[in-house]
Amino acid sequence: MDELPGALGTSASLALRLGQAIFSTASLLFMCLDIEFYSYTAFCFLVTIMGLVIPWSLTLALVDAYSVFFRRPSRQPGVMSVIFVGDWVLSFLSLAAACSTASVADILITSNSFCHAKLCSRYQLSAAMTFLSWFLSVASSLFNLWLVPSL
Amino acid sequence: MDELPGALGTSASLALRLGQAIFSTASLLFMCLDIEFYSYTAFCFLVTIMGLVIPWSLTLALVDAYSVFFRRPSRQPGVMSVIFVGDWVLSFLSLAAACSTASVADILITSNSFCHAKLCSRYQLSAAMTFLSWFLSVASSLFNLWLVPSL
């Protein structure tokens, strides 16, 4: 099997997964720390999705690290399909969360009365981190997509 | 080549494309007709994306109708790749537009002072139509995805 960079078990995939975990954690921290986020549906949605993305990315990062350092890449078709479908679903969900958060932050800034400047910039930062996490998630699912037909 | 239902040039694909065009047009009409939508960024984004989705779906519906009724399915790899990438990009964009519109409509309803009940329900209907259009768009791009490796 040719080694496609970015597919499961390579060091590029490990970097992508770690990036996803870091950006998702940053997004969660920007949103949750000392802010009452639960008054808006979009923010609760973001926190829920980030709570799903972080363990998913960390688990796959562990699998990648094991493959990279102990040289045992095992790619059963069933496992690859589950990872591929999970990646796509989570990337759609994190895009949805990022867009909702961004538009709610935008409307809060426009209407000007709902949040202080510091709060709103934290909402925006959280949305930006979610967009970055979504981008990396799409990248790793695209890399895995090229691997699926060869199984 | 085996005829996968839903791939380009089949009657199922024609139905999917027509559904996308109908739902996108409904979403655009719910949003634009007699409403000043341009005061919110998310609504302008929705109108822009629907203005892209409608001609795209109608063009591909015409291609499908030609293939169905005149029996000449021509699938060059280049054309299929362009259609596949276009479908994915448009489905991501329409998901983003649907989520933004839905969350803005939700926050307008919660804050209660920005829109009348009738207006807000129209925003919600527009978001729902966009979600349906996104769903059909993902379906047709998934069907085309299974066709890409066989080219």
TrEMBL record, chains A, B:
- Where in the cell does this protein reside? Cell membrane
GO cellular component, alphabetical, reads:
plasma membrane
InterPro entries tied to this protein: CASP_dom (IPR006702), CASPL-5 (IPR045009)
User: Membrane-crossing residues?
Assistant: 37-70, 82-105, 125-148
Instruction: Specify the signal sequence span.
Output: none
Q: Which residues form the Casparian strip membrane protein domain?
A: 9-136
Membrane topology reported for the UniProt record:
Multi-pass membrane protein
Which keywords has UniProt assigned to this entry?
Cell membrane, Membrane, Transmembrane, Transmembrane helix
Q: How does it assemble?
A: Homodimer and heterodimers.
Family named by the database record? Belongs to the Casparian strip membrane proteins (CASP) family.
Q: What is this protein called?
A: CASP-like protein
